[in-house]
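Q: Can I see a sequence and its folded structure?
A: Here is a first one.
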Amino acid sequence: MAKKTPRAKKAGGKRSPAKKPKTAKRASSRRPTPQPAPAASVPVTREMVAKRAYEIWLGKNHAARSNHPVQNWLEAEAELRGKPAK
C-alpha cells in the first residue's frame, strides 16, 4: 500500500474559496416584436386605405367622426406604409 504524504499548507493556512464555473448567459425568452412589412413588398391599394380609414373613423367618438375624414385617410395611409403619422 502506498503511503499518503501530508499536503503542504498555503500561507495563512486558509483555503481559497471554490470558483463557480462560468455559465453561458441564457437567451431572452421574450419573442421579438413583429416589424411592419417593408413598403416595397406589398403595394398599398386604395381599398386597403379606405378600409383602414373607416376603421379609424369607427374608433372615434360621435363628435369627432364627421370632423376630419381627410385626416383619417392620411393616418390610415401612413399606418399601412409604415411611416409615422404627422
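Q: Show me another, different protein.
A: A second, unrelated one:
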Amino acid sequence: MLNIRKQYLAIVVATSLAAPAAFAQSAADASTDARAGTQATTPAVPATPASPAMKSWTELDANGNGTLSATEAEPLPGLSKSFATADADANGELTQDEYKAWLATKGKDKPNAGA
C-alpha cells in the first residue's frame, strides 16, 4: 500500500514539474509562428459610425438670442426640413415653445434639444 502511494506521489510531482515546461513550449511556438507570419489572424471589423450627439438648445443657438434661425436648426435634419411649419408665427425664428409644440405634433421627445 505504501508503495502505491509513493508511485502516485511521484506521478503527481512529475506532472506538476512538467506542466510549466509544456506551457512555455506552446507560448514559444505561438510567438515563433507570429514572427514567421503563419499565425492565423482575424480580419479587422470596421467600427460602426457613431450616431451624431444630441445638441442642447444653447449649443444650437449660435448667436445666443434664445431662438433658432433656419441656419441654426440645420444640425437637426427633421426640424430643418419642416422649419417653416414649426415656426408658428412665421418670423424666421423658432422659440423653445414653438419647438416644443412642433415636437408634440410629431409625437417625438428630444430631451436635450428642448432644454
